[in-house]
Amino acid sequence: HWAQSYARQLKSWHxxxxxxxxxxxRYTAGKPLExxxxxxxxxxxxxxxxxxxxxxxxxxxxxxxxxxxxxERWGWTERPLGRRIGMLPEHSERHVYLTPRQVxxxxxxxxxxxxxxxxxxxxxxxxRGEMLPLEPDQVRAGVVLLTxxxxxxxxxxxxxxPQAAAIARxxxxxxxxxxxxxxxxLEARSAAGLEHVRWHDLRHTYASWLVQAGQPLTAVRDxxxxxxxxxxxxxx
Length: 236
What we know:
The chain is mostly helical. It is about 55% helix and about 5% strand. The chain has helices at about 10-30, 35-50, 55-75, 100-110, 110-125, 130, 160-170, 180-190, 200-210, 215-225, 230; strands spanning about 140, 145, 155-160. Helix 2 runs antiparallel to helix 3, helix 4 (about 100-110) runs antiparallel to helix 5 (about 110-125) and helix 5 packs across helix 9. The chain is globular.
């Protein structure tokens, strides 16, 4: 009920919330409401095994909390289901940056579409939630145009290197779901011997390459869509 009504009114729905809802619906299919706590524990275990960041796992858990709290508010249950879902403790930021050779190693072990998505991610710095819904008309004259449906809530334009622009012309729309991309990426990183690498590290790598090339942090901030320079300073 929440996914079909209130959630669709949120700015984050088209950016990434709908993909997270799809994952939760697969975990909860056929289960009674009271099983939501067991579902949360399974999401924790699966996420940690797959190498998801603590922050990513907690986003799924926060959605389950929201659903549990709404169920109690709507009178569907008298149990405090949402308040019984515990979050994982979040630690300091990871600093994992790939070399061009490592990116090629990773792409070489992936299927052709995933390989191009890996290359595009590291050449554009887009978040996965920004990449997946891209349409061909959002790339004009070698520039990706994002609407305000981004994490920062502001539109931005990202110039693409020729290789990334060629990938966009060839592949958009991707035709890949978040769950399928995650599964293919896990297979590729394992085959490449890069089990420690996460998808978001491709975005970090993009930023680190810009800094190494002499780009000012203010430009890196704007290209990444960060809300403040303090967030970008990790790449200094």
